[in-house]
Amino acid sequence: MSDILLQAENVGIRFGGLQALEALNLTVRDKELCCIIGPNGAGKSTFLNVLTGTLRPTSGSVRFLGHDIAGLPLHRIARLGIARKFQIPSVFPSLSVEDNLKVARWGAPSPVRPVGELLELVALTNRAATLAGELAHGQKQWLEIGMALAIEPRLLLLDEPTAGMTPQETLATAEMLLRLKGEFSIVAVEHDIRFVRALNCETLVLHQGRRLRSGPFHDIETDEMVRDVYLGRR
Amino acid sequence: MIARDRNWLLIFAVCVALAIVYPLFADGYQLTVIRDALIFGLFAASLDFFWGRTGILCFGHAAFFGIGGYIMALVTLNDAIPFASLLGIMGAVAGAAFVAAIIGYFLFFGGIRGSYFTIVTLAMGVICQQAAVSWSSVTGGDSGLIGIPPIEFDLGGLHVDLSQDLPSYIFVSAIVAVAVLALWSISRGRWGTVLTAIQDNEVRAAALGHNAPLRLLVTFVLSAAIAGLAGALYVCMAGLVAPDLSGLLLSTEVIVWVAVGGRGTLLGPVLGAIFIQRAQQTISSFNPSLWPLLLGCVFVIIVFVLPDGILSIYARLKSLFKGRRRAQ
User: Fold this and answer.
1) What ipTM, to 2 d.p.?
2) Could you identify which of A198, B26, B133, B166 might form a hypothetical disulfide with B30, taking C-beta atoms 3.0 to 4.6 angstroms apart as the criterion?
């Protein structure tokens, strides 16, 4: 029991008349990697917002290390050890790559990795002095992952980390995450099935705000129902 | 980065050197003109410290200047208060900081940013000026308070008396130099870098563990405190305080000084304040009503054509020529 990091129980959320999420459960153990997939509008990003505490669920609860995190200010959630990478790359464009990582380290309660090591991890050592706004799209995404690492998270939540990447960059990102897998828990919301296949981990499939299937990716991939939903037959 | 810091320190040193040799060539009247312009320069630097680093424009900064001025006047005009000059300065700084803390708390923690912040602070300035006019039993109403004594205090056996032109010039120059240097060292280090990050993307900065509203609030309070100090110095040198000192016109003027001198440079706004006040005196001598018109036009031109200030013309020309050369 004690290695449970994040536990979402019976989470539901309503926006006016729309039931965006219904009766969702998710348990993330320490140092576990898992993915949330589903077609557009399935509620993936909404669920991630609930998991990070930015959206308060209308029913159910989200507990991180036993604390209820719904509605806490963003910086407090970050200091509990939850890092988040946004869907659109959101680095600080007017700061250099190095300063971006420094700002990230300063926000952490107890940063461990020096900036040099972070630069190396995300393959940006030779761009340290470049303004982050001038980086290529894929490099921005990596810099963001580096910034998330800088705060030494217990849990890293990634919202479509490979959005807009080339297939090569997508695979390189998957490799980057697999290297980091043993250090902390990772939850990735993803649309790109190649990326999820490369990660090959526990997967939760959402459809219209509900759990459709969950289990190891191998089982998910061969599931008829999942195929139907992805191919739009239902 | 390092080169930019070195250039800044070099320009700062040149300015200090000019301020030191100036009394050798100037008469008493010219000294007081520059002294008063420097006080407004300090005021401009205080606005730039907030606006330049956070990108959030305060359109009522004169409110803090005026609050500092009125507190200084009320304390020094009261014979019952000992050490009036020192207590007055401290009260002025604390009073302006206090008002900024209250208003800033509700705005920053309430998520008010951008133009909404500008509009609310604009209203704040108008309210302050109106309060100064209406509360005439304390503030003297429209005519303000007169007969404010010059700064005079003892500090560790040293008797400071600023009733003469030269001592007051030296005192003001020293305070402005120290304050600008202090603001600069705060804004270039870790504090300033995080503020730039917040300006770029506040949500992202918060998601990294930075308490963005608190940091903005502290920066705003510090900026208001320096504005209050400038207000306190000014009323002692001028000998009077009036509702104009917290009014909309001064709030606009200080924005123009910062915009002309170059936002985010701290030193530029001080120079901008001196330069523009000089121009104001010259132009007003032709026709007093010409100045506000011209000020408005300069403001519009700066905002649209040179958002980084007059000093940026040099950098722009340089990049223009570079571009030409590359094209050939």
Assistant:
1) 0.81
2) B26
